[in-house]
Write a structure and sequence with these properties.
- This protein is mostly beta strands.
- It is about 0% helix and about 50% strand.
- The protein is built from no helices and eleven strands.
Length: about 130
Amino acid sequence: QLLLVESGGGLVQPGGSLRLSCATSGFSWGNVAIAWFRQAPGKEREGVSCIGVFGGTKAADSVKGRFTISRNNAKNTVYLQMFDLKSEDTGVYYCAAKAVYGSSRYSCRFEQYDYWGQGTQVTVSS
C-alpha cells in the first residue's frame, strides 16, 4: 500500500512550537518528493514547504525562518518543525508525495502531488 500518515498536530499558544511527522510506506524513496500543505477554514489549500530526494527544500514566504522541513531516509519519514507559531498558521496540515525523475529529484515544487495523507489539525490560539 502507498500510505502517508501525519501526526503531531494540536493546540498551541502564539509563539509556541510543534513538530509534525509524516510517516510514509510503500514508496520508492529514491524517486519521491514530499511536501507539506495546509488549509485554513474558508481558504484554499496552500503549499508550506517541500523537500526533494536529495534534500533540496523550498518554503512559502510566510513561514521562512520559522518552519524547517527535514527528511529521515532511514525511517522514510518527513518532519515539519514549526517555531514562533502565529494565529494565521492555524489549519489542517497535510503531507503529500509525488514521483520525481531525473534532475527534478534535486529540487521540489508545490504542484501536482498525487498521494495525500488525512491531515493533522494545528490550532494556534491565545
